[in-house]
Amino acid sequence: MLLQNKKVIQLVSDDFEDLELWYPVLRLREEGATVHIVGEKSNEEYVGKYGVPIVTELTFKDINPNDYDAILVPGGWSPDKLRRYEDVLNMVRIMNEQKKPIGQICHAGWVLISAKILEGKKVTSTPGIKDDMTNAGATWLNEPVVVDGNLISSRRPPDLPDYMREFIKVLAK
């Protein structure tokens, strides 16, 4: 398996976009990666926008980003909640400083904006936050997936196959 010894953080909060969380988790697990579901509380059920639940294994405070190879931020309304936690922003900053893959889709760019890591980067997102992304110093592209170093970004659920194909390539390196 391509990602057998890789460990990935999947952040979660309520109102995540169901496919944008579950599809990456399942694809990475298919490739052999260990994916930990991480939220404000452990053993807590969070519910997606369309009613699909997920249960956390660890809390933000439990995580040492140095022990992980990558991080995923889901879309939906979850990013607006996630970016309010300093522990989340610190995780993202540390992963970025160490050039570890950071996956973001749809509204997930809000977390990267709040972590202040987009200056000079090329990204995509849902068009609804295009201005937010450019105001944070990024160059926004209307493409299914954009890879700029360790940042892998995507627009929305129909782009998930392209997004995960590129995320897996970057993580496998």
TrEMBL record:
<dbReference type="InterPro" id="IPR006286">
    <property type="entry name" value="C56_PfpI-like"/>
</dbReference>
<dbReference type="Pfam" id="PF01965">
    <property type="entry name" value="DJ-1_PfpI"/>
</dbReference>
<feature type="domain" description="DJ-1/PfpI">
    <location>
        <begin position="6"/>
        <end position="169"/>
    </location>
</feature>
<dbReference type="InterPro" id="IPR029062">
    <property type="entry name" value="Class_I_gatase-like"/>
</dbReference>
<dbReference type="InterPro" id="IPR002818">
    <property type="entry name" value="DJ-1/PfpI"/>
</dbReference>
<comment type="similarity">
    <text>Belongs to the peptidase C56 family.</text>
</comment>
<keyword id="KW-0315">Glutamine amidotransferase</keyword>
<protein>
    <submittedName>
        <fullName>Type 1 glutamine amidotransferase domain-containing protein</fullName>
    </submittedName>
</protein>
